[in-house]
Specification:
The complex is a heterodimer of chains A (224) and B (253). Chain A has 224 residues and is mostly helical. Chain A has eleven helices and two strands; from the N terminus they run H-E-E-H-H-H-H-H-H-H-H-H-H. Helix content of chain B is 27%, strand content 22%. Classes of the chains: A mainly alpha (224), B alpha+beta (253).
Chain lengths: 224, 253
Amino acid sequence: MLRHSALVRATHWIHAASFIALVLSGIAILLAYPRMHWGKTGTVGMPSLFDLPLPFVLDLGIRGPGRYLHFLAAWATLFTGSVYVISGLHTRHFRKDLLPRRSDLGLQSIRKLVLNHLRFRRPTEEEARNYNLLQRLSYLGVVFVLLPFMFVSGFAMSPAIVSVFPIVETMFGGRQTARTLHFFAADLLVLFLVVHVAMVILSGFVKRCRAMITGYATPRKARS
Amino acid sequence: MNNKVSRRKIITTGLAALAGVSGLGVAAKIADRYGLLAPDHQGAFGVGEALTYGTQRLLMASHSLAREFSRSEISKVHPVNHEHPGYDPYKRLLYGKFADWRLYVDGMVAHPAAFSLDGLKRMPFRSQITELACEEGWSYIGEWTGVQLSYILNLVGASPKAKWVVLYPFNDFWGSIDMPEALHPQTLLAFGMNGEDLTADHGAPVRLRIPRQLGYKNLKFLARISVVDSLKNVGDGNGSAAPEIGYSWYGGI
């Protein structure tokens, strides 16, 4: 049984690569000024919201390429994300596989699902064929909430884009608030990645990876 | 059978790749013609740079204005990133209060000129309270006073064929901006900041102030301005010193 369509597989791995690039380059940019402010402005000498326990790394060799890479990877994310979303709407992938099913929302099934997670119980092959409620909600949250939010809060830090669409900055109350929220949303995405990889390992690393590369959870021989 | 299919696949993939590459080439040519191609589009990260600059240039076709703030929003702290050059000839000019300083304007202009600081200050000037955002992440709001670069370009009769304005400061961090940015009403040659003369560390005698781009594009300690129609033969052809240290030429991010 085909687990993932070719398009989902391709966009998954391109996105995986560009997300890693975004995180690493984001850290390189962040380290130039690891302090967070709220409101319009914020510099050394102004009160901060909080200071990250990280050194100020002003090494141009890290920062410059970090910036270049961040925007290149953001474009890659925008393109693969758009292809994924448009095709997902077209093939009804979101509605069929990701929108929570009515049967998922019953108190009983939620209870069972949470307990299974708390006991670190591996899903059966039958169960692994469909996404459970937590998966559905977190995938939808990443695709339709967190990633778009990363773009909007990123736009708020572009003086050129803000000059054209001031609302992307004013809706946050200021550039520094947007920067701080960009940081928090990035943290949530990294948290998602960690949990996602942990779940892949827990539910059978080889099988899940095979499914996301070849499309099938079982090897070709076992299928025929 | 399998072989045939894979060979056909290889050929079609190759053709598609070829079409893609030549398509990119054509796209780059067209973009260049309409002033949408960043000078540093050939580096390892050039595709991202070309997309960012081209898109934002198109978005800003309406000559969008950077946000301006009220006087009460001016920050109390105005950090300095790079101190003034502590060497001659800058040091000597600084001691002489820039009386002997001249801003040279040359290149594709009808009347190359050299302006004194007093001369600039007698021109019509404008003050604007805008945000200066450093690429490092910090930002502050200040009031800058200066002559619109467009006024100077009109005065010297910049050629309508010119596409870029190259700026040379007293240090070696030279740079350039495109003509739409140079002619933008908020692009100033600023000699004043928060009601006083620009201090040395903030870029005296004159700095470029372009509030639609990040701090590092707002070049300080200006000495010379050159109007050109191509950046290919200026420096290493990347449009500014920034790409040499890994920074994009375009700072609108």
